[in-house]
Amino acid sequence: EKGGYEHYMLKEIHEQPQALRQAVAGRIDPIEERVDLDLSLSRSFLDDLDEIQLVACGTSYHACLYGKQLLETLADVRATVEYASEYTVGSGRDPSRTLVVGVSQSGETADTLRALRMAKRTGIRTLGVTNTVGSTVARECDDALYIQAGPEIGVAATKTFASQVVSLAMFAIDVADVRGDLDPVAGRELLSNLQDLPGAVQQALDRDEEVREVAEAYAGGEAFFFIGRRFANPVALEGALKLKEISYDHAEGFPAGELKHGPLALVTEATPVLAVLTDGARPEETRNNVKEVQSRGAPVIAIASESGHEGDYEVGFGVPDLGLLEPLAANVYLQLFAYYVADSKARPIDRPRNLAKSVTVE
Ligand code: F6R
């Protein structure tokens, strides 16, 4: 059932190329350069839209942070992200010109359902992005967009993160296109990045053994920091969440620029720093932050664009040119790193203590 893998988590990490193909299957028309997600949102509703509010928890929240940037980059629309547990409609919103997008793998997370119900009561249209057909999120939202990742058994979300981001990327293209905001060059590039992503993810998966060696070499770290900018920031946050969940080590992710505003005080030779320096993520500036931690003796594990400087680091992994989706390929290295650190400590990876796959209490 685990397909020869020791844990569901590792199996699901390796299922990503397939999951990503399924996510876009039948939804992209490469000739017309269009996306069809079969949603009931009308042209006039999308045209008049003031704001898209994305709500979610945990890993799905990180996917929303990525999705917000895609929406704001492609479609000329304001997008905000809130933890579902903290969501309020907010003041000054016209409900008829607002869309709330609830992202939930399980479709059963109580906090997310609460936020969606609150929006609905206010008269706001809701879109659920979920992996689970027939889930409460899918049933209660005005529209459902299925990420089509296949079942995810491991408590730590892996393949569904990438599929959520890809679904939000297609949604961003669709919204931009309908509103007449889509820059044809940017749209074409993202569509081609979506097609190339499974191959790039496979390329990272093929280095599984190397990542294991690196993870084992650094597993003794006192704490682990993850940094990235722009599109790589949500991936840094996600990398830290994965590591803390399954290895029980202290891990923190933050925007690379925030390092010097506090966390740098914690950086020593005993705190490995994982830096995501992909294109579109202002890698040159992150390189400066990497130098800051290196000068304090911290070991750096860099995930960089192949076209950039992966070779400049003691430990480096490269990702091929994928435009705005490069951090998604980088994330695979972080998932494998977390997995192998946890595995080297013999943690119960598929069932970490205190956690449940679907959190049905607020
Ligand atoms: C992290 C993880 C959790 C979930 C969160 C939301 O690996 O699994 O943080 O992402 O509980 O769950 P869903 O997406 O089902 O709403």
TrEMBL record:
Catalyzed chemical reaction(s): D-fructose 6-phosphate + L-glutamine = D-glucosamine 6-phosphate + L-glutamate
Active site per UniProt: K357
Localization of this protein: Cytoplasm
Transmembrane segments: none
Example of a GO MF term: glutamine-fructose-6-phosphate transaminase (isomerizing) activity
SIS domain span: 41-181, 214-352
EC number of this enzyme: 2.6.1.16
BP GO terms, sorted: carbohydrate metabolic process; fructose 6-phosphate metabolic process; protein N-linked glycosylation; UDP-N-acetylglucosamine metabolic process
Keywords: Aminotransferase, Cytoplasm, Glutamine amidotransferase, Repeat, Transferase
GO cellular component: cytoplasm
Its job: Catalyzes the first step in hexosamine metabolism, converting fructose-6P into glucosamine-6P using glutamine as a nitrogen source.
Assembly behavior: Homodimer.
Protein name: Glutamine--fructose-6-phosphate aminotransferase [isomerizing]
Species of origin: Haloarcula pellucida
